[in-house]
């Protein structure tokens, strides 16, 4: 049986361990080796890379993608997209979503993994449609979580609807590292029996389950698994690539990756890992196993945010109370999966409830918007008293929220004038206005002129 690997060191591993602070120049020398080693895909864009490039690295994220594409003409490049949220925390109108997807493909992306934080498939339809129209692969991602309403039947139903939508593959996206080996085996097996698409499994090592779960995924017939080169694996990152290649080859799986080549890649990244450890960018704590998520379903990144929020207010002694409050808030909101932006919303509200000493004395504007229906349909029933407290006699939105949003791309382009040198610049500004404007002005001072356009390359799109 053949199984393929998506390497995450350029995006999710980088994001999970060192807050997406790895610059292009740091990893550029190894790109040609990454291109030739035999990965199914390289996850290199999306998620927090866009924000980090503009905010911290003084890089144009689009130029970064084009440079990666130029050095990796033979391997599929992959990105993560939050459906109608794109790379941000709010819904954008359809014209922006379509333009963002179009430009992502033009600049080098082959696979767009698309998810909605609530598994509300209305919020991924436009992104999927535009991805396919532009000749790229749309990987529909199911956000895995555990609750009284989430079960095998629900996940299979989501996958079937995604297949009808036309996606190219189905990804099980376990952002908290909480899917057990048994659950992984049963879910992969059920999906393989229910849909005729490749099945991909994405998890994290946060709780210590990741390696075992990916082994069971392979045994159940998964087509692709997400892993990270070993020196950037473990903890809140993905399980190690080399370990799984070694173990699965021993079990007789057909794998294209060569361990000697992987060693060269790992040896390249080790100094970057060591540098991050030395300067404090990589906190050793995030490399350890944290089983709190098994009790509270709090992803590693969400836990870090809670600790930072409580520390800033001198309330770190309240952390245990906040962790106990988190599942209660999640239940009140209809059991949303704890993935961006829902994880931040639930965590902040739980902390606020504890710090103020009264549940929902203060309600964040994001939770109010959620209860109004602006993020989509809650997976389960929300707390009616809480909803009434926020909305009064106003009825929540039941339509797709983006249907209420006016187009803004051309209007924003006109307003930016010469400050934006390309459509890509306009998209950067729409996504992160303050950071993009600052970047543009600094760029203009230096006299840089961003190139734009499509690289010419040929790649076999193997499912």
Tag the structure with descriptive keywords.
463 residues; alpha/beta; 8-stranded parallel barrel; 21 helices; 48% helix; globular; disordered C terminus
Structure description:
The protein has 21 helices and 8 strands. By secondary structure, the chain is α/β, with parallel strands linked by helices. Mean pLDDT is 93; it is low at 451-463. Strand 3 (76-81), helix 6 and strand 4 (111-114) form a beta-alpha-beta unit. It starts with a strand and ends in a 17-residue tail after the last helix. Helices cover 48% and strands 9% of the residues. An 8-stranded parallel β-barrel has the order 1-2-3-4-5-6-7-8, surrounded by 5 helices. 51% of the residues are buried. The radius of gyration is 21 Å and the shape is globular.
Largest sheet: 8 strands, parallel, barrel
Oligomeric form: single chain
Count of β-strands: 8
**pLDDT below 50 for ≥5 consecutive residues: which ranges?**
451-463
Which structural class fits the helix and strand makeup? alpha/beta
List the total number of helices: 21
**Helix fraction bin:** 40-55%
Strand content: 5-15%
Averaging pLDDT over every residue, what do you get? 93
Cross-sheet strand order for the largest sheet = 1-2-3-4-5-6-7-8
End-to-end Cα distance = 15 Å
Computed over alpha carbons, the radius of gyration is 21 Å
Q: In one word, what is the shape?
A: globular
Q: Give the helices and strands as they follow along the chain.
A: EHHHEHHEHEHEHEHEHEHHHHHHHHHHH
